[in-house]
Amino acid sequence: MKKAAVSVSFSNVISKIDNRIYGSFIEHLGRAVYGGIYQPGNPNSDENGFRKDVIELVKDLNVPIVRYPGGNFVSGYNWEDGVGPKDKRPVRLDLAWFTTETNEFGMQEFDEWLKASGSEMMMAVNLGTRGPDEARALLEYANFPGGTYWSDLRRSHGKAEPYGIHTWCLGNEMDGPWQICHKTAYEYARTATETAKLMKWIDPSIELVACGSSNFNMKTFGEWEHTVLSEAYDYIDYISMHEYYENNNDDTPTFLAENIGMDRFIKAVVAIIDMVKAEKKSEKTVNISFDEWNVWYHSKKHDEDLEHWGRAPHRLEDVYTFEDALLVGGLLITLLKNSDRVKIACLAQLVNVIAPIMTNDDRAWAQTIFYPFLHASSFGRGSAISVSVDCETYDCRKYKNVPFIDSVAVRNDEKREITLFVLNRSLSDDISLSVSFSDAVKPVEHIEMAGYGLKDVNTCESSPVKPVSKSLGAETVEISKASWNVLRYTY
Ligand code: AHR
């Protein structure tokens, strides 16, 4: 058995973790809304048409914020279509996903759903087909108390109190040629800045996220961030990052190291933010909203052949494997390691569409990736602690010197708990891990996901891939090959 060591100093604090790092995302796409969170007439739904079985699983995940309504969808969306009497709402073509949108569900229903799920809205404005005027109208509708056209319209829709939406995205992936009304960096930077200015004039308490690059490989990466930040720096609070990971080559050693790529991407964006900060001699620090991240590739072939203009088709329905769960654990470790700058992150998405939760007409179930997210959201609140890891490394196609063990700790002073998240990337070796702490601790439990085939999945029929709770030794822990581990201690 290989050996490794982790040492944890209680005072090695990276940052207090912003709970919004455990955010997620619901887009009007495929069966995320219709047939996912909302299915009137289904025996599992409540009087509002909300799937109760889904709400229970979402509550387990304790998601503090959910981005809405897109994604690519938002760049062609008229928010007014989704408020007011349902029988007056128009049916429209959605050019982002080539489907038909009935608008039966909009922000009014989403707000109710969030209340039932214990979460908050992160709202995106359309900077594709629309711009500053609609964004300011939407903000006035959502957050202004009353006595104006848009706020009174909201009140006439039965919502006397403002929605009070705090976190807003200035469009979505505007650097991407696939985006409805894609823009150059300068075109976007100007629109985003003027939109941000108007929005902050209406409600200075809100926080704004400007679009960064759609992924690290975009040709415009770097120049895009620099241009957007140079124009918008004074008005925005976050710049977004998006990235999806895949194992198309069936190269698991590389796949399990992809969170190193995520780390490099974050560090690169931080460097550009701080360069602009220096250029402007600004006191203010812009942070990161990593508002789309996940594994996405299993469903791509299937989706190429989808017919146009269907309603809520099965789309982006990745069925996640055990190895996907391992990488999602690794990605969560990386987000926590960077929690000094990543303040918001959204697992994309939440239900049916590249999601931890799946539904059919009979039931809802947890995919493999549900569990590492559940663990991080449950035990990863407090302060992130950088740990020192001593272990062997390996080389793979994309990365050199990849440590077999990846780890971060989270200390929760209210609960007097400290938790270590540990990924073992070795596909062949269990590792005897010696764990030492600067302060006295008492072991509580070892939650482990291990021993499954790399391609094992959970489906509506059976869900074999799930964590088990084991007893935790005081000094040495056996970390199984290819495993995700949560080591819980009190102090
Ligand atoms: O999450 C699915 C899609 O991925 C989103 O609509 C878009 O923003 C990204 O390209």
Please provide a written account of the structure.
The chain has helices at 52-61, 107-117, 132-143, 149-156, 185-202, 223-232, 252-255, 258-280, 300-304, 322-337, 370-379, and strands spanning 2-16, 23-25, 65-68, 92-94, 99-101, 120-125, 167-170, 207-210, 238-245, 287-295, 342-347, 357-359, 364-366, 383-390, 393-394, 402-403, 405-412, 417-424, 431-437, 442-449, 468-470, 476-479, 483-490. It is α/β, with parallel strands linked by helices and 491 residues long. It has two domains: 2-9 and 386-490, Immunoglobulin-like (Sandwich), CATH 2.60.40.1180; 18-379, Alpha-Beta Barrel (TIM Barrel), CATH 3.20.20. A nine-stranded mixed β-sheet has the order 21-20-23-18-17-14-1-19-22, with helices on one face. An eight-stranded parallel beta barrel has the order 2-3-6-7-8-9-10-11, surrounded by six helices. It has a two-stranded antiparallel ribbon with strand order 4-5. β15 (393-394) and β16 (402-403) form a beta hairpin. α3 packs across α4 (149-156), α5 (185-202) packs parallel to α6 and α10 packs parallel to α11. The mean pLDDT is 98. Bound molecules: alpha-L-arabinofuranose (AHR). Residues 27, 70-72, 172-173, 214, 292, 348-349 line the site of alpha-L-arabinofuranose.
